[in-house]
């Protein structure tokens, strides 16, 4: 299996989600060992996730929470509609 740089992002996502089998993980790290650019992407991704996991959750006030949920619902609806029209 030959791993190209463009495949690394998907593999990295799967790696950090703990979804790679041992063979895929081996190929990923072999590539990272040989490719400085992809290794930088890996390190950046890892730093971002580490920072994200270090954040403490905040408690939103009820009206702000409702407002956010309403906005999120609208955004999701728009994405679904766009995908439907793309298929036509």
Proportion of strand residues: under 5%
Count, helices: 4
Q: pLDDT average, as an integer?
A: 88
Shape: flat
Helix coverage percent? over 70%
Helix/strand-derived category reads mainly alpha
Give the N-to-C terminal Cα separation: 36 Å
The run of helices and strands is: HHHH
Number of domains: 2
Low-confidence stretches: none
Largest sheet: none
Report Rg: 19 Å
Q: Say how many strands there are.
A: 0
Question: Can you summarize this structure?
Answer:
With 88 residues, this protein is mostly helical. The protein folds into 2 domains: 1-55, no CATH class; 58-88.
Question: Care to describe what's here?
Answer:
Helices cover 80% and strands 0% of the residues. It folds into two domains: 1-55, no CATH class; 58-88. Helix 2 (22-34) crosses helix 3. With 88 residues, the protein is an all-alpha fold. The protein starts with a helix and ends with a helix.
Structure characteristics:
single chain, 88 residues, mainly alpha, 0% strand
């Amino acid at each position: 299996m030959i791993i190209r740089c463009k495949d690394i992002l998907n593999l990295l996502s799967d790696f950090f989600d703990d979804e790679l089998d041992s063979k895929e993980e081996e190929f990923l790290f072999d590539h990272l060992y040989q490719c400085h650019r992809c290794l930088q992407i890996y390190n950046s991704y890892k730093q971002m996730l580490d920072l994200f996991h270090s954040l403490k959750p905040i408690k939103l006030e009820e009206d702000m929470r409702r407002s956010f949920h309403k906005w999120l619902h609208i955004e999701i609806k728009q994405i679904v509609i766009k995908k439907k029209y793309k298929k036509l």
